[in-house]
Specification:
about 170 residues, Beta Polymerase, domain 2, 3 helices, globular, 5-stranded mixed β-sheet, two-stranded parallel sheet, 7 strands, alpha/beta, about 25% strand
């Protein structure tokens, strides 16, 4: 029998209570929110529980929400796949904007190594316990995290670009 989303929700709620909330089905992916302090425990449960069997960590990525309050300014999103029942899930853990950090998943999934390094490199999210948390794509000398939304998309000082050539015009009526 296929693993139903109601079973996933019930098992997680029984085991973790208020640390797992916001269950919702978005297209074909069951999504929910996990308290950052419980993320590693939830990952372990989803992987090792004989009924859950989410044995593949598809992706780990960061998100910056600059307009949220400080306690929810960053998020780490985990995508997991249960190959046996062909079920995919996604969960987010929100992090404090002043000190965005969460426990590493490398103790459970070796694939998390590079994914967490990339997330650190672009968002500055620290993964506690990571075996080698350093930049993976950007130069080590960088002191900024380029995917944070605190940087403008375009350089306002450019003089070599005419907006008319890009379909952007200023209407001065």
């Amino acid at each position: 029998m296929a693993l139903e989303t109601s079973v996933i929700q019930d098992r997680l709620t029984q085991k973790f209570g208020e640390n797992v909330t916001g269950f919702i089905q978005i297209k074909d992916i069951f999504s929910f929110e996990v308290a950052a302090s419980s993320a590693n425990e939830v990952l372990r449960f989803l992987k090792e529980d004989p009924q859950m069997r989410f044995n593949f960590l598809t992706d780990v990525c960061g998100i910056h929400y600059p307009d949220n309050d400080k306690e929810r300014q960053f998020a780490v999103t985990y995508h997991m796949h249960n190959w046996v029942d062909n079920v995919r899930i996604r969960f987010k853990s929100y992090l404090n904007g002043d000190n965005p950090e969460i426990d590493t998943a490398t103790n459970l999934f070796l694939s998390a190594n590079w994914q967490e390094r990339e997330t650190y490199d672009f968002y500055g999210i620290v993964f506690n316990g990571h075996p080698q948390l350093k930049r993976i794509l950007n130069m080590d000398e960088m002191d900024v995290f380029p995917m944070r939304k605190e940087y403008p998309l375009e350089d306002g000082g450019r003089t070599d670009k005419d907006d008319r050539f890009f379909g952007r015009t200023i209407d001065n009526r």
